[in-house]
Amino acid sequence: MNKRIRVSASILSADFSCLREEIKSVENAGADELHLDVMDGHFVPNITFGPFIVKAMKRSTELPLSAHLMITHPERYIEEFIFAGCSAICFHLEASGDPTSIINTIHKNRAKAGLVINPDTPIKVVEPYLDRIDFVLIMSVHPGFAEQEFIVDIIPKIKVVRNLALKLDIAVDGGINDKTVDSVIEAGANIVVSASYIFSSKNRKYAIERLRGKNG
Ligand code: DX5
Ligand code: ZN
Fold first, then answer.
1. What spacing in Å lies between the alpha carbon of 141 and ligand 2's midpoint?
2. Residue 28 sits in a domain of what CATH number?
3. 24-39 confidence digits (pLDDT tens)
4. Which terminus of the chain has fewer CB atoms gathered within 10 Å of its CB, N or C?
5. Beta strand 65-70 with 33-39: parallel, antiparallel or unpaired?
6. Is 216 a member of any domain?
7. Pocket lining: 195 vs ligand 1, CB cutoff 6 Å
8. In a domain, 1, yes or no
9. Whole-model pTM?
10. Can you say how many angstroms the Cα of residue 14 is from the centroid of all Cα atoms in its chain?
11. In which domain, by residue range, is 119 found?
12. What pLDDT, in 10s, does the model give residues 78-134?
């Protein structure tokens, strides 16, 4: 089954001193959504931003906002991020004691729910949830920072999930660029998340087209 490839521009590599212009630039360059990396300094060593900044992003774009929560106790913040303007939320299985209840909260608020797994986490832990989530996000770097090297060992995981769930949206996040993107699409991913490759590119439109795959 061939799903259209969607490019999710991760705002982590944007110049935050002119966030609105940066968002507009990737919107005009053809990004399908914005990927918002929320980090709390506990679940990951880095700290980024919360719902207050998300609200400002929402006022700057028509693109859907997809939050990637890298925080402990994600259940405490789900509704805040949805009220701030996110139409999709994903959270780490490694951070959550009760994924089903979080998925239900996300759906109750009419947003899409996703589960994230780290490079070292096996697929079998997401399997029980595959029929109740809208997407799975497979990390291809250890979460926390942009500009890391793609971990090639995660490719088989994409294939396993695709075989288990033919219609599920599968996103891959970390180290995605012109050299790594084809392998994740070939393995079955249909959403590619990228920060540094898009934002450091001189021609962001071209970079986004390239991420959609060899055939654009
Ligand atoms: C890492 C984040 C990624 C990051 C990707 O913790 O979840 O979304 O922004 O950055 P690049 O594309 O530079 O690897
Ligand atoms: Zn991310």
1. 9
2. 3.20.20.70
3. 999 999 999 999 999 9
4. N
5. parallel
6. no
7. yes
8. no
9. 0.97
10. 15
11. 6-211
12. 999 999 999 999 999 999 889 999 999 999 999 999 999 999 999 999 999 999 999
